[in-house]
Design brief:
By secondary structure, this protein is mainly α. It is built from 9 helices and 6 strands. Helix 1 packs antiparallel against helix 5. The longest helix has 27 residues. It starts with a strand and ends with a helix. About 35% of the residues are buried.
């Protein structure tokens, strides 16, 4: 069985989940600092902003999870309302990416407001690297044996121990590694967006890289969410798919208006 704990030091347990999330954030911050330097901005701003973004992002990610209602008896609002102290145990999993994005943007906005920085310019640098952080952080789900999909007989299906299987799926052993699909999608997206940021730098406008993130990541999330038996649904549709579809439409409309409609008008 996979051990979610990386190192034990007496009563202290350092878990893979936290290590991978923090490692992904630090690597993303490093890439951000290099991009900032390339663009003539102060790279130290990235490291100063990191704590603000991390704290607000984790808070937002946890709140989204706490107030959700996942299927399959997974911890959500009904559970945390009855066990409020359990909401503090983030090392056991339960961080939602859309909540993290909302919280992270709030953290970045507060930092930029306080230090008189251009928020949109910094978010254009940050958002492509968010995909890198996600690609690494998703592997924390592997060690927690969560974020897996429906049963599969495909050769890359992962074994899930009986105690981690969702109700109704106890008879199955191997499942779609949804965390892996999303990790691959994110690392490809990171590569594509970084290439676009450099190859078409002269043609990009402020806010374009933010929009491209919200075009790329949600497209993949619509697919991966369809494979999850524990998805929080509204009206039979996964909530994350609804948010993703709205994000794709808004991002596509934003980019089309800026680069097609204005060009036609001129």
């Amino acid at each position: 069985m996979i051990d979610p704990v990386l190192i034990r030091i007496g009563p202290l347990a350092i878990r893979w989940y936290g290590v991978l999330i923090v490692s992904g954030a630090i690597l993303a911050a490093y890439v951000c600092s290099q991009e900032a330097r390339r663009k003539g901005l102060n790279p130290d701003v990235v490291w100063d902003m990191l704590l603000w973004v991390l704290v607000a992002g984790i808070l937002g990610a946890r709140l989204y999870h706490i107030f959700s209602s996942p299927a399959g008896g997974q911890a959500g609002w009904q559970y945390y309302r009855a066990h409020p102290l359990e909401a503090l145990k983030i090392w056991q999993g339960g961080l939602a990416i859309y909540g993290a994005l909302a919280g992270g943007v709030v953290g970045a906005a507060l930092y930029c407001w306080r230090h008189k920085q251009d928020l949109v310019a910094w978010l254009d640098i940050i958002f492509p690297t968010v995909l890198l952080a996600q690609a690494i952080g998703r592997w924390g789900n592997y060690f927690n044996q969560e974020v897996y999909g429906y049963p599969t007989d495909l050769p890359w299906g992962i074994y899930i121990p009986p105690e981690k299987r969702l109700p109704g799926l106890e008879a199955y052993e191997r499942f779609h590694p949804v965390f892996l699909y999303e990790s691959i999608w994110c690392i490809v997206g990171f590569s594509v967006l970084m290439w676009v940021a450099r190859r078409y730098e002269s043609k990009l406008r402020k806010g374009d890289m933010i929009a491209l993130y919200f075009l790329w990541y949600p497209l993949g999330r619509i697919f991966t969410e369809s494979l999850r038996p524990d998805a929080w649904t509204v009206g039979g549709i996964a909530t994350a798919q609804i948010i993703s579809a709205a994000a794709v439409v808004c991002a596509a409309a934003f980019l089309a208006y800026r680069h097609l409609a204005r060009r036609a008008a001129s």
